[in-house]
UniProtKB/TrEMBL annotation:
Lineage of the species this protein comes from: Eukaryota, Metazoa, Ecdysozoa, Arthropoda, Hexapoda
Top-level taxon: Eukaryota
Biological source species: Anoplophora glabripennis (Asian longhorn beetle)
Name of the protein in question: Uncharacterized protein
Length: 151
């Protein structure tokens, strides 16, 4: 049961973040539940689901998430002077069977998840990133809910 949510509504600009404090009243026992956050951008609705754990004892997870990638296209056919003519695409898969995935992010930003994912999931999630052959640098990081990370 939701006990406290502050602020209830928040307006943020592009590239801004906001911290929303959420307090729940929970029942006894160990169980999982799901909370859905919603945001409007213009007339478009976005949703983010989060798994909430209620446990009688602390969760122990010292293992980093699993992270794998495969290229579906690359820049091997382009010489640098013609790099603007080509793009590369990578498929990323991440999974954390311990505490669950908190976040999968990339630098530069732009990692796309066509099926989205629920924060805290222990299932495999798949994302994609495409970049210009002129900009081949890319880093992806998977973070679980107990702050174990894999780069």
């Amino acid at each position: 049961i939701l006990r406290f949510l502050k602020p209830y509504r928040q307006i943020i600009g592009p590239e801004e973040t906001a911290i929303i404090r959420l307090t729940l009243i929970t029942g006894f026992g160990s169980y999982e539940d799901e909370i859905t956050f919603t945001a409007w951008i213009g007339s478009e609705l976005f949703k983010k689901k989060v798994i909430v754990d209620v446990r009688n004892q602390a969760l122990i997870d010292n293992d980093s998430p699993e992270l794998d990638y495969s290229f579906s296209s690359d820049c091997s056919k382009f010489i640098f002077s013609k790099c603007s003519e080509g793009t590369w695409t990578v498929k990323i898969t991440a999974k954390d069977t311990g505490s669950g995935l908190l976040q999968v992010s990339s630098y530069p930003k732009g990692l796309y998840f066509p099926n989205d994912y629920t924060t805290g999931t222990r299932d495999e999630v798949t994302g994609y990133y495409s970049g210009s052959c002129c900009n081949p640098d890319f880093q992806v990081t998977a973070l679980d809910r107990l702050n174990n990370r894999k780069v």
